[in-house]
Design brief:
- By secondary structure, the protein is mainly α.
- The chain has a domain at 32-59.
- It is 54% helix and 0% strand.
- It contains two helices and no strands.
């Protein structure tokens, strides 16, 4: 099968939709607790990941 490219391997960790580093680059200067913001982002992001898998597997 010449000419077929292999699928790109994601460097994204399992259970992550949008990595914190990517989201941090999109944000303006953070004046509060960066560690707390990172934890909240990761908690919300994992819920999105679980929701996507639930939709894929349930229907």
């Amino acid at each position: 099968m010449a000419g077929r490219d292999k699928p790109k391997q994601s460097k994204r960790p399992a259970g992550v939709c949008i990595p914190w580093e990517q989201k941090l680059a999109e944000l303006e200067k953070i004046s509060g607790d960066k560690e707390l913001l990172e934890k909240v982002w990761q908690d919300i992001d994992v819920l999105a990941y679980i929701y996507i898998w639930h939709c894929l597997l349930s229907f």
